Amino acid sequence: MRDKRKLKLKKFYFHPITVFLFLTIVVVILSWILSLFQTQATYKTVNVITNELEPNLIAVENLLSFDGLKFIISNAAKNFLSFGPLGTLLISLIGLTIAEGTGFIETLTRRHISKIPKSIFTFLILFVSIISSLINEVGYAILIPLIALIYFINNRNPILGIVTAFCGVSFGYGVSIFVGSMEISLMNYTKSAALLVDDTTHIALTSNLIFIMVATVILSIVGTIIIEKIIAPRIGKYKKDKDFSKTEQYRIINLEEEEQKELEREKYQKRGLQFALVMSILVLFIFVYSLIPKLPFSGMLLDMKEKTYLNQLFGDNSYFQDGFTYLVSLVFILSGIAYGIGSKSVKNDKEMIENCSKKFANLGSIFILMFVVSQFIAIFRKSNIGMVITSWLANLLSIMPISGIPLIVISLLLIAISNFFLTSPTSKWMIFSPVVVPMFMQSNISPQFAQIVMRAGDSMTKGFTPLLASFVIYIGYLNIYNLQKEKPYTIRKSLQMISPYFLLISATWILLVVGWYIIGLPIGSGVFPTL
Predict the structure, then answer these.
(1) Residue 524 falls within a domain, yes or no?
(2) Is residue 38 a contact partner of residue 62, using CB atoms and an 8 Å limit?
(3) Which H/E stretch holds residue 59?
(4) pTM for this structure?
(5) How many domains would you assign to the chain?
(6) What is the pLDDT of residue 245?
(7) CB contact set of 388 (below 8 Å; sequence gap of 6+)
């Protein structure tokens, strides 16, 4: 008898670059099909001068037309160079590579961070990641590379570190322990919509402060449990290349010499950390001083044209917001150099620059990926598909005869669904606020609580869509640390890894918002869920 052998089809993995190229083509073709059917939607905005609703017509734009193809070709360079994650990641990596190249991050990790229990360190990562949204989306560019490196040095899977940092920033976006850029972005739309019902409505910047402070802690605790109990076991351990085995005889012969070298090395490392600490304190002092107005040579990072301090700090033209990534990078650069001098880990500037250059050697693929993703997102935005879908969802909500808890939950879910297609919280709230806020107020729910529903809906699905610009950093770093290059992390696999976090945190958000409404706790100073 002949042996019957089963033929096994080899599973083929498309690289994310290929997938995003394919998705770009799909969007172009889809825009052509939808434009043939004259797909459009109408959404309403509030005229701030007349305080009246004005209709706005938005239609899907055909990108397979002459003008559409001209846009795709002529704006390719502009789309890439203006792509937000590109600049922030480059700037943050300069600081991180210098700090890594001098040995600062490795020594700090091994001597101090490695002593922190895993669950506590996970909580700290999530907590810092969540409050990083205080300043837009800089957390992605700073925390994902940093945490991956710390995990790698600490002999823990860097893939888990990437997932933890990404989930913290994404699914906790918009909450913090202090008011930030989100308030500045959303408050004007909330106020304009509230004035349609009550012209005496006042929306303060601190109207959501109590809620977001509590939410930050709760999301960090729940997130820690999800990471440690569910995601970490699934990801498993990181298998590094095995070191060459050394004979026991060799180890005994060189034991005294190695101990002497280790003592000397520890001495220099300790001095290096002291130098780095002094430099960090000095830089942070200058940094904080530049945020204090009306002192000699202070206020450099504030937009002094604004009247209120929060607008000076988080307004559209704030130097603090625009320069925050560079300032963090500068802390790493100067601290790394100080450590290198104190520990004598680098001999001169040429050696330090050479060490840093080597760290950039593996980053070529992520910049190619960024180019492709920047085109995909720009083309999708140009097609107006996301705006049309969001407008449909807002109009669907407006015709629903609901109030109370059903209104809160459905509003939350519709905003969350729209976030798959329109990731900008400002653009979403511009469309949803004239619908959500009046409906809430007519149901005796405060406009400030409507803004919380917007925050929760935006955060629930923030990291679960490839249309999020910073998703490219997440998937790019997964593939940098991927040991099986023949099996790259695809969009599907990347989303599967965070799906438990996405589902459980979404449930947490819903329970938190509904529970807060039922109990009636204050959401801000003198502000409650109900009117």
Answers:
(1) no
(2) no
(3) strand 52-59
(4) 0.91
(5) 1
(6) 39
(7) 39, 40, 41, 58, 59, 60
Q: Domain residues for 221?
A: 16-519
The confidence score (pLDDT) of residue 296 equals: 83
Count the Cβ atoms, other than its own, within 10 Å of residue 66: 8
The residue among 526, 380, 500 whose CA lies nearest residue 448 is 526
Contacts 24+ apart (CB under 8 A), 244-252: none
Residue 354 domain-assigned (yes or no): yes
Tokens of 78: 């502009």
pLDDT for residue 256: 60
Give the three-class secondary structure for 245: coil
pLDDT along the chain (531 residues), means of 10: 47 84 97 96 88 92 95 95 92 92 92 93 96 85 95 94 97 87 86 92 90 96 97 86 41 56 82 94 90 83 82 79 88 93 84 77 86 97 97 96 96 97 94 96 96 96 94 95 88 95 97 97 94 87
Interatomic CA distance for residues 93 and 75, integer angstroms:
26
Secondary structure letter of residue 70 according to DSSP: H
First vs last C-alpha separation in the chain: 84
Q: Are 266 and 282 in contact (CB under 8 A)?
A: no
Which one-letter DSSP state was computed for residue 11? Answer: P
* Lookup: tokens for 317: 């033209």
What does the pLDDT read at residue 398?
Answer: 95
CB 480 within 8 A of CB 149: no
Residues 356, 101: contact at Cβ < 8 Å?
yes
* Residue in 441, 468, 491, 480 with CA at minimum distance from that of residue 133: 468
Distance from C-alpha of 373 to C-alpha of 368, rounded to nearest angstrom = 9
Residues 177 and 216 sit within 8 Å (Cβ to Cβ): yes
d(CA 162, CA 474): 7
What is each CA distance from 313 to 138, 202, 287, 304, 310, in whole angstroms? 15, 21, 13, 9, 5
pLDDT in the model for residue 248: 40
pLDDT (0 to 100) of residue 10: 55
Whether 24 is covered by a domain: the verdict is: yes
Is there a domain that residue 9 lies in?
Answer: no
Where do runs of H (alpha helix) occur along 205-254?
209-226, 232-235, 248-253
